[in-house]
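User: Okay, second chain of the day. Same drill as before: sequence in, structure tokens out.
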Amino acid sequence: MRVLICEDNALIAMDLREMVEEAGHEAVGTATTSDICFDRAQAMRADIVLVDLNLADGRTGPVLVKRLAGEGIPSIVVSGELDYLPEDHGALALLEKPVSYVSLRDTLSRHDRSAKT
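Assistant: Same drill. Structure tokens below.
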């Protein structure tokens, strides 16, 4: 599965990339703002996007999740601020930071569309 990581903290993005790849998926890139992430998700044909709620351009993650869902691109929110997410968020799953490898691996496995076809 092709996974795009939308996270503005370089160390966290690097950790997520390693976990994604260790789980057997392809990390296709990273983005630090919602607009860049949205554009890259489409251009890179991401199967799923890991989205932090608070990005370099502010608390734009909730809007990004809805924009991605509107384009048929699923997302998983990975954030320490899940309380700021509205109930109608549109994400497939929510993971609280710091996220464990097992939680991320299992969540990605549950939502791996390519494994189900």
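The chain has one domain: 2-99.

User: Thanks, on to the next one.
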